[in-house]
Fold this protein.
Amino acid sequence: MRIVVCVKHVPDLQAERSLGPDGRLVRGEDDVLNELDENAVEAALTLAEQTDGEVVALTMGPDDAVDAVRRALQMGADAGVHVVDERAAGSDVLGTARVLAAAVRKLAEGTPVDLVVTGMASMDGLTAMLPAALAANLELPQLTLAGAVALEGRTLTITRTVGDADEVLAAELPAVLSVTDQANEPRYPNFKAIMAAKKKPVTIWDLDDLALASTGAEADGGPEVGAAGAGTRVLAAEPRPAREQGRIITDSGDAGARLAAFLVENKLV
């Protein structure tokens, strides 16, 4: 079984975030592997271990985005692919899905890809749209937001929670799978795994390698890759205002009444 797991390099959640003059998120300062992609890597590794399969970590992004692939290699992935091309900078989720789908198709030229795995969302954009967009580009069934995953033969079955109900969905491979942070507990690489990851291959591709035109648009007229083809624009951005200092009320017997009055005054109840 051959599995491609999509990973992304994103700013650390604990770091201060800012937008550059071009309206794009400033990257490369405290970037890490997207936390929710760790669950995707774990799901891919677990399925590969069950089937004696192979896991390829795939990412798209600038030069330092390869660190997300290397983290997946440390966790146990067998190889990595990094799509890096300045023409793809500023892509929205549709453009990103188009590039990743082209990379999956190229990987499948040698050995078929049985499964594409993603996290439920990236912690920078938080659109949660990539799995569906990727499935649409690859024309594959999608099993999304999985809280539990089971494989029997060529049938992949997931359980996911929607509101107060649990849904059980199944599809024949090949397919696109996305998992939530409840699906598993990602493994932590030990020193031996970290050292072994340094010897694993990472292939670098650009848009030309993926048969995408120089403009970033494929010949069939699909969405253009890069900022020019993005469906969204950042019109304005301001630094987050400093948190105001709270009020301390010394209880002299009427603190409850004063608190109630404060809540009513500020329409908090």
